[in-house]
Amino acid sequence: MKIARLFVANRGEIALRILRSAQQLGIETVLGASDADLDSVPARVADHCVRIGAAAAARSYLDLEAVLAAARSVRADALHPGYGFLSENAALARACDAAGILFVGPTAATLQAVGDKLAAREHATAAGVPVVPGGAVHSLAECEGLMATLGYPVLIKAVGGGGGRGLRRVEAAAQLAAQWDLATAEAQTAFGDARVYVERYVSAGRHIEVQLLGDGGELVQLGTRDCSVQRRFQKLIEEAPAPALSAALTGRITDAALALGRALHYRGAGTVEFLVDAARDEFYFLEVNARIQVEHPVTEMITGVDLVAEQLAIAAGVPLRLRQAQISLRGHALECRVNAEDVEHDMRPSPGRVTRAVFPAGAGVRVDTHIEAGSVVPPYYDSLLAKIIVHAADRGAALDRMAECLAACELAGVAVNVPLHRRILADAEFRRGAVDTGYLTRLRAAA
Amino acid sequence: MLTHEDIEEILRLLDATPVDELELETEHFKLTLRRSPSERGGWTQEHQTRSEPRVLAAAAPAAQASAGSAAPAPVRSAVAGALEVRAPLLGTFYRSPKPGVAPFVAIGSRVGTNTVVAIIETMKLMNSVYAGVEGQVIELCVADGDAVERDQVLMRLAPLKS
User: What is the largest CA-CA distance in chain A?
Assistant: First the structure.
């Protein structure tokens, strides 16, 4: 079935990114926007825009009924959920199926299988993919029992969590009872599911992930990304391919991602995340992100594949257009996430009106942003303003180009984290490559 | 809408000319490209979208009146000598740590400098609001769930007699 009219159920830079690919393909676009976004750049760029509710996300972008009603009222034949919000919501995928609207994403069954993080662990184990030592725990006593074999520190994770949300680190036995109470209460309020599981905390691990594209039968991988530069489990800088990783280990990791994808009969774009202990030559499955990801552009830059266009083709029922042998990785790409966060005040969020927005441009430079002078950054949503992406022949050249891009970046009206990015790009340890997920915390502590 | 490849193409042409600035204007957008002053070369881009949103009437009833956008409560004359607790940042004001749980403070509560009196949610992060002063709560100026501006008075306290 051909997609003639696409409903975009998201906001910000990813809404604009989806609109761009759809419009290039000659697809008519309708953006569902909250009261806070009716005058945003994506609302102006979309062919049409429709109000889905109040500014608070719970009453608009997270309101399944409102989103579906808007998509139906404009007679959209497909719905792209972007990332975050309802993007991995199996009920939305099912409701779209029932309404005769193509859901641009995996099947409801896949979303359910990987959305339950414990079920995802079991699928990984069944597919022969190693998982971090740990498992399900139903009571504090059971948790204490498991600790005897795991050892501290550990992470208590919400079964319904993911994307860096819903996890708590426990350093020692004395903290366990208190953290257990907090973690289960938080899991219940944030995800409506009090179930938790426990995993050993690997402190010096690298976060490496594999991009997959599948049509339910055929499946290909588009290489690795390294997202180890993180703060509070939120990614800040991503690169592709993952640097300083042996070809043998890279091969084992991409094979593991493919094995899991095949076991799930994966359809659409998805990412398998791993924690890699490069020193021990070991890796563990973390989770599957069953959607387009924030950092997808670095993969697009080194493969030349438009991942959103492929998502739309797969949703329309076109058999996978790519074969593994056709996918080659060229050069190196980096992405810096520019967030409205105040570096001077412990990365405090900084909503407001942007008065000046100057971004870099040039060969191998791409900026994905919904921000221009006059744009309002509302306090209701996340703080991502722009993604600065560079592509060059090798990592060294990409690092130099990114440093120049950051120097050229000027935003006024809201505080942004660009100074932190400049610091990281100038840091010898980051430039060497292969930093672990504890790197950014150490760098900031050293200030 | 231009892609990054379009912009690269334009800059490849400009690089070979002495032009330092180019303004491209259509009915949909205005793009300004400037050669960056640094000797390492490079360019900057500034974008202005000119099209207006084409809003379709929603089929769903124009639902809930947005409580969040309600005008702030009229400022009441401050009680003589009262201390104020102001919002450290813009966001949504909550009196309790989570729904269905007792509020941090109520009228009559005694607070110290480091007492958490409310939280403000901004960009999905919960920020604690500290009293900042010692006192007894005598007035709550904002309702639970209301949007607050930075520096807006949240509550007033009577100083404690020492």
Answer: 60
